Amino acid sequence: MFAVEVSVHSQSREDRNKALGKALEKVTSRLTSDNEFTQNPVVKSALDNAAAYEDQYQYLQIPDRTGKNSSRVLRVTFNQDAVMAFMCDSGLAIWGADRDKTLLWLVIEQGGKQGFFGCGTGYRD
Fold first, then answer.
1. Residues 6 or more apart from 90 whose CB is under 8 A from it?
2. Which residues have CB under 8 Å from 103's CB, separation 6+?
3. Do 108 and 115 meet the contact criterion of CB atoms below 8 Å apart?
4. DSSP per residue, 61-78
5. Could you tell me which residues come within 8 angstroms of residue 99 by beta carbon, excluding any fewer than 6 positions away?
6. How many Å from the N-terminal Cα to the C-terminal Cα in the chain?
C-alpha cells in the first residue's frame, strides 16, 4: 500500500522531489475514494513536502523488451504512520486495509425469461 514506483528523468534532487510528489499522490489515491483529494489543503501540503514522508527510496534501471533501451524508475516506500497521520488530519474518507471484493451481477434475458449469468456456471434461471 505504501510502496510505489514512478518514472524519473534523472537522479537530480529536483527530479527526485517531483517524483516523490507523484509517488505520494499514487499512495494517497489508494487510501481514499475522494477523486478531488489533491485539492484538500492538508494533502496538497503533504504532496509539496513528500520527502518528509518517505522511509526509503532507490533508483532502478528497467530495460525494455528489446533490452536495448531502459527507463529509470524511482521506487519509494513511505512511512505508513506519517502518511496515515496526514490522511486523518485531512478529514478525507479513508479506505480500510480490508476492502470488499467487487461484485457484479449480470442479468440476461433470453426468450422472454431473465436469469443470472454466473461465473463458471453460465446462464441460469
1. 37, 40, 42, 43
2. none
3. yes
4. EEE-TTSS-EEEEEEEEE
5. none
6. 41
DSSP H or E segment with residue 90: helix 80-90
Phi then psi dihedrals of residue 109, to 5 deg: -110, 125
pLDDT tens readout for residues 26-60: 999 988 888 888 898 999 999 999 999 999 999 99
CA-CA distance, 4 to 55, in Å (whole number)? 12
3-16 pLDDT, tens digit each:
999 999 999 999 99
- Residue 12 and residue 24: Cα distance in Å, rounded? 18
- For 21, 43, 61, 101, the CA distances from 122, given in Å and listed in that order, are 46, 46, 45, 21
Largest CA distance in the chain: 66
**Phi, psi of 124, rounded to the nearest 5 degrees:** -145, 150
Q: What percent of the chain has pLDDT over 70?
A: 84
